[in-house]
Design brief:
59% of the residues lie in helices and 0% in strands. It has helices at residues 3-30, 40-49, 55-64, 67-71, 90-102, 109-118, 123-135, 143-150, 154-166, 176-180, 198-210, 220-228, 230-241. Bound molecules: heme C (2 copies).
Length: 254
Amino acid sequence: MKPAAFFVARRVLPVAAALITAGAARASESAQPTAQPWTPVTLQTALRDLPKGNAAAGQKVHDGMMCASCHGTAGNASTLNWPSVAGQRADYTAKMLLDYRSGLRDEDPRARLMTSIARMMTPQQIADVSAYYASLPKPVAPQAQVALAALLNAAELQRVARLVRKGDPSRLITACASCHGLHGEGKGSTPAIAGQTTDYFIRTMRLYHSGARHNDVYKGMSQFSQRLGDADTVLIARYYASLGTSPQKMTKAD
Ligand code: HEC
Ligand code: HEC
């Protein structure tokens, strides 16, 4: 991590930790255990019913509602443990905010913090911030993430590239690229995962694995994460981290 990023993280982390505790307490008071799972049709309808988003207004939401304090200026998270939101698909961001709001995404105290934040947002603010994130370039990998990804040796890179592009029929794993795109750019409400922070990526895959994160429509991610195993998950997280906007030339799979 660059010294500047380190100081930002040191200043923001204690504030965020307090917010997470407060948020968890507030959200558990108002938790709605009856949050309805999506069907493809109800999801499509909910996304269509949102007002049209405006990226410039979304930037004001990002700054004004303190999203920037955790997700970083311009959507690049200041710690590897929190998700970057830059370059994310508008439909996916909107879906997550709706999922946090309804309590459908409730895997841990961090998710419940987002629940209390999402409940303060109007549908217009949700649409605007989603348009803003979609207008930004892919996340810029923090230095530490670049170094991690660069540690992939030739054999690891070959293994990951195969899993990502071809999947593994023997373990019934579908190629990640078939849904998340060849460069991790996502599609529709399937998220962009290129440049995503490694620790968050690994954590969320483990939460799909345990079933604690269960907000996806087809439950596909819980199946893939269970079949993948932890070692491959870590390799894949490092691989995708390297596909963000990089300050230096990265190892390429091709
Ligand atoms: C105190 C820190 C904090 C603040 C402030 C915050 N977030 Fe988050 N956000 C998080 C964390 C931590 C997660 C990951 C939660 C989890 O694992 O479910 C997250 C998750 C998200 C996600 C899902 C990301 C993904 O890849 O699935 C979106 C979208 C999001 N936040 C948007 C926002 C918006 C918009 C705001 C402001 C209105 C905001 N956040 C404010 C910490 C924060
Ligand atoms: C059949 C399509 C499909 C395939 C194949 C697939 N995914 Fe996903 N993935 C999704 C969808 C849809 C979501 C969003 C689910 C939700 O709404 O929470 C998702 C979510 C994710 C997330 C969470 C992103 C975030 O910001 O929180 C990660 C990480 C991820 N996938 C990694 C992978 C990896 C690694 C593979 C390959 C082993 C893979 N996916 C294969 C459809 C797919």
